[in-house]
Amino acid sequence: MSRVILKKVMVILLLFTVGVFLIRTYWIEIVPVLGESLKILAETQIQYVILAFLIYLLSVYLFAVRWQQVLSCIGYELKATDLLPILFGAIFVNNLTPANRTGGEPLRILWAKKRFGISYTDGFITVLFERLVETVPIILLLLYVVYFFPSLDIKLLPQKSILTLNSTYLLLLALIIIGVLVWFFREILTALLKEIQQNWRQLKKSYIPVLVLSSGVWVLDIIRLKLIALALNLNLSLYTIAAVSILYLLLGILPITPGGLGIVEGGLISLLLYLGLPLASSGSFVILERFISFGLSSLIGFLYLSYYGGIEIWKNTKSH
Questions:
Q1: Of 10-19, 100-109, 114-123, 144-153, which has the strongest mean pLDDT?
Q2: Calpha distance 192→183 (Å, rounded)
Q3: Global pTM?
């Protein structure tokens, strides 16, 4: 366990060192860009920010409804509002742990056990079922983004050749990567699918509602990002917003920094730059988006954790 922690610390220190080096090296170029970003943020249309935040809250509520639908199929009659504190608390923990959802999901299971008497097994199965069904809209969105992604020019040797990856090759590459990952984690996936199969009779009743709600959450995410763009007077296409949405998820999964700090911001800004958005506008967009999805969500989650005693439960996750 100590080796794992040591490796994570070394990676974080390495990234921090690289970041400091890059900032010092390009400080002269960074200062004007920061000034432009602050000017853009100063002209933010607050009404769109409020709408984006409300859409975010609605998304979390849909997550609660989704979980409530699965729980009801196995005999737990709860209101979606009863589950909101747990979900916001899980979001807060996710924002403090590397690899999105690895910290929040155990908290959901333990908190549901303590507050509503939901067994660990049932809690695990319901959360697992949610995530598996959610992969359907995620994969569809990923395929859309990859298929229509602009051609990538990769310089293998500066003076000899340039490899161009069009959308077809990029899509094929993505499918190969997914296949390799499935094969690599086949034992874990087989065990998880076996758990779902054993409880399929009960869970199948909620499949359609969960699929619809999961798709609705992703639609709301795209609407939220569009509202953030409108708040900054940025005309982002539907494709650009969809690409940002899916990349946000992929970067957040990387187990490098807490809540993907630095990794998410750098990745999203790089994507927006590649798609033609100026650096100052890209930075402003990402800052405002993270203010809502990371800053405000963490604040709400912390308040819920403090009020309902979730902090003690969070500490206990280390022993499970």
A1: 114-123
A2: 14
A3: 0.79
